[in-house]
């Protein structure tokens, strides 16, 4: 058992509270009155005053930040604890902030100057620390249902339709989960599958249909239909890895990954793009000709049919319409993004917090239900410690469920734990192949924003239904970026405004309903890695390379032009040192001042701690290939070292897919299932 995690002391927590209270405090006195006057429309003064007076501490939300800090790896808690300890001394605060005095005892004006200094520092670690603390504070406050903030932003909170007839129209399948008794559990199956996402769900369905006795083990929890509150904070806490606050080791990339029953398919939006032809050809040239065959297309078609993927029922929301209009005016190519919505229109801007309506066709609604119908069994809240290996063959797994041990024997083990946890489990199980954990790709994302006179309400309607490929080939070899529209709730929006002072930051959040966000999703050529910490759990090592930064830069430049062409009155990026650009000329993208602005944006580039980078796609950390020297698994998905041990998830991608990877993950798992069935049938002859 790993050693207990360290805990922050009361003095360290006092400093942490003082930092987050600097970012989102209660406004008082003249500062409050100026805030109300600046944003008043003549009828909302009381609402603005209530929002101004609301702060992260007086709303009792500081505890959420501390909970998130305590969820970090032990070494990160120690590192942050050291910073807090230093800031709890007068000399330490002088050294790190230039002001003599214990940080928590300083006035808010003094603390404000210190955190601004960190944000603008030439020392990247100070920029990263400031950005991390702001992000934790912002998400904890603006994802929580703070009534005064939601009223001021005119944000409805949970989906207004959550109690409508849509909720009762489709019921979730009912799953019975095996409970481990106090004395432990030992069972035997033909196949045990670790993970219930796109890979694990398909494997469970295909192999149970083939007559195999299948057990699916999921470390996350299954939330019933009525338990999905569609409140941001509940969604992040319950459905995402690390409560939605997962990052790489240096804190420069924020990573969203599903951590619930159905994995990423439960929180994924509905985008279902096929693997581009040039990526299929790239993989074929790397020794995997299968991806250029009709057989692989048959797997894609099988998934498309089961999920009823189509673009026929798309109804673009306001933001996607503006993306299309801006591209039309510039002559940029666009296309609709097929959706896995069961052959019907699906307007659900809250899908990232679980589809309460049962319309999105994740594995919970489809493949896991198929597996259940064919006799598969399931475990939730169950962490697999390692794969059991005897004489070079996988024979089962051992793990714990709520502290109770279980041992599952099986003739085949399929690891479908995702690109973060799959290599970690293989390493814990003793596999030595040097490629396990290497080649991690994240599709690093940068955001670009435009503010419009009209209301946009980018959290309403269908999510991500259009894409432009104008920047997808930056390097001439298939690496560039796609430009799409995300769903944009206050919690996510809150991490992007440039923080200069508390009142200005709150004022920026009032523009929520008039913002069109565009994401620049880059196809990263250069990967990172997954390594296990001392506790045996994964750490994410990843830095956006110079090559991949160029892809982001072109995407950012194109996105700004799209927004200006679409009629934005103001545009900006998530780069700390680049100001917003106010559109004052009818010349639009031809305005010489705008062209100067674009050059400044590219010149500033993407710097650690100075630009917010995110990721919702993880892939490639157990890459498939035709040689154990360059890959972690065989073309069949079986590991090179251990017979009967398969990997079936996005970690087997040889390179980044360049598109939302869900459909590719489904189809590769479907292919691996066919390989297993064919091998089993051959062995019977």
Automatic annotation (TrEMBL):
Catalytic residues, per the record, are 617 (proton acceptor)
**Catalytic activity as recorded in UniProt:** a long-chain primary fatty alcohol + O2 = a long-chain fatty aldehyde + H2O2
Record's InterPro entries? FAD/NAD-bd_sf, GMC_OxRdtase_N, GMC_OxRtase_C, Long_Oxdase
* Listed Pfam families: GMC_oxred_C, GMC_oxred_N, NAD_binding_8
Glucose-methanol-choline oxidoreductase C-terminal domain: which residues?
535-669
Question: What keyword terms does UniProt attach to this protein?
Answer: FAD, Flavoprotein, Membrane, Oxidoreductase, Transmembrane, Transmembrane helix
In this chain the Glucose-methanol-choline oxidoreductase N-terminal domain maps to: 237-445
Enzyme Commission designation: 1.1.3.20
Q: What is its main location?
A: membrane
User: What GO molecular function terms would the record report?
Assistant: flavin adenine dinucleotide binding; long-chain-alcohol oxidase activity
- Which cellular component terms (GO) are annotated to the entry? membrane
Q: Where in the cell is it found?
A: Membrane
Domain of life, source organism: Eukaryota
Q: What does the UniProt record say this protein does?
A: Long-chain fatty alcohol oxidase involved in the omega-oxidation pathway of lipid degradation.
| Family according to the record | Belongs to the GMC oxidoreductase family.
Q: Which PANTHER family match?
A: LONG-CHAIN-ALCOHOL OXIDASE
Name of the protein described by the UniProt record: Long-chain-alcohol oxidase
Q: Which organism is it from?
A: Linnemannia hyalina
């Amino acid at each position: 058992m790993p050693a207990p995690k360290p805990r922050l002391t009361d003095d360290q927590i006092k400093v942490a509270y003082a930092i987050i209270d600097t970012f989102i405090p209660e406004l008082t006195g003249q500062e409050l009155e100026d805030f109300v006057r600046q944003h008043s429309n003549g009828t909302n003064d009381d609402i603005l005053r209530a929002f101004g007076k609301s702060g992260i501490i007086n709303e009792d939300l500081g505890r959420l930040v501390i909970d998130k800090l305590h969820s970090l790896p032990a070494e990160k808690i120690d590192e942050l604890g050291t910073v807090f300890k230093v800031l709890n001394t007068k000399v330490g605060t002088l050294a790190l902030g230039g002001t003599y005095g214990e940080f928590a005892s300083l006035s808010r004006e003094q603390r404000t100057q210190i955190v601004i200094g960190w944000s603008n520092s030439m020392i990247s670690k100070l920029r990263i620390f400031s950005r991390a603390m702001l992000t934790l504070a912002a998400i904890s406050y603006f994802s929580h249902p703070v009534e005064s903030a939601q009223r001021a932003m005119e944000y409805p909170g949970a989906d207004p339709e959550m109690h409508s007839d849509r909720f009762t129209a489709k019921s979730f399948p009912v799953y019975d989960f095996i409970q481990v008794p106090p004395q432990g559990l030992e069972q035997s199956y033909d196949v045990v599958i670790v993970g219930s996402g796109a890979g694990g769900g398909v494997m469970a369905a295909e192999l149970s249909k083939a007559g195999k006795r299948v057990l699916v083990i999921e470390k996350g929890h299954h939330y019933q239909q009525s338990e999905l509150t569609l409140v941001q904070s509940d969604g992040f806490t319950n459905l995402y890895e690390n409560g939605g606050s997962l990052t790489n080791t240096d804190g420069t990339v924020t990573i969203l990954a599903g951590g619930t029953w159905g994995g990423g398919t439960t929180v994924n939006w509905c985008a279902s793009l096929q693997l581009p032809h040039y990526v299929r050809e790239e993989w074929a040239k790397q020794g995997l000709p299968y991806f250029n065959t009709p057989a692989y297309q048959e797997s894609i078609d099988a998934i498309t049919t089961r999920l009823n993927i189509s673009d026929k029922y798309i109804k673009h929301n306001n933001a996607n319409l503006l993306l299309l209009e801006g591209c039309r005016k510039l002559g940029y190519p666009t296309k609709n993004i097929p959706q896995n919505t069961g052959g019907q229109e699906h307007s659900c801007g809250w899908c990232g917090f679980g589809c309460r309506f049962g319309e999105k066709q994740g594995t919970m609604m489809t493949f896991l239900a198929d597996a259940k119908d064919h006799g598969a069994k399931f475990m939730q809240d169950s962490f697999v410690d390692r794969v059991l290996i005897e004489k070079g063959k996988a024979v089962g797994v051992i793990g714990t469920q709520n502290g109770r041990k279980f041992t599952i024997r099986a003739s085949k083990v399929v690891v479908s734990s995702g690109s973060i946890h799959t290599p970690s489990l293989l390493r814990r199980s003793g596999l030595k192949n040097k490629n396990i954990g290497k080649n991690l790709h994240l599709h690093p994302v940068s955001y670009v924003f435009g503010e419009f006179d009209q209301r946009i309400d980018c959290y309403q309607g269908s999510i991500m239904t259009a894409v432009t490929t104008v920047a997808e080939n930056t390097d001439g070899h298939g690496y560039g970026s796609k430009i799409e529209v995300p769903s944009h709730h206050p919690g996510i929006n809150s991490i992007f405004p440039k923080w200069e002072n508390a009142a200005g930051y709150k004022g920026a959040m009032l523009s929520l309903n008039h913002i069109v966000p565009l994401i620049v999703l880059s196809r990263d050529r250069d990967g990172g890695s997954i390594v296990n910490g001392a506790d045996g759990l994964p750490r994410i090592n990843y830095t956006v390379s110079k090559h991949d930064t160029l892809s982001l830069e072109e995407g950012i430049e194109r996105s700004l032009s799209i927004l200006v062409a679409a009629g934005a009155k103001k545009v900006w990026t998530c780069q700390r040192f680049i100001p917003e650009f106010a559109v004052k000329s009818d010349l639009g993208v031809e305005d010489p001042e705008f062209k100067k602005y674009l050059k400044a944006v590219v010149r500033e580039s993407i710097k650690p701690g100075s630009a917010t980078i995110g990721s919702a796609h993880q892939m490639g950390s157990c890459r498939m290939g035709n040689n154990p020297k360059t890959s972690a698994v065989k073309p069949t998905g079986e590991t090179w070292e251990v017979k009967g041990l398969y990997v079936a998830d996005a970690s087997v991608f040889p390179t980044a897919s360049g598109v939302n990877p869900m459909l590719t993950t489904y189809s590769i798992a479907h292919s691996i299932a066919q390989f297993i069935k064919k091998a089993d049938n051959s062995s019977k002859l």
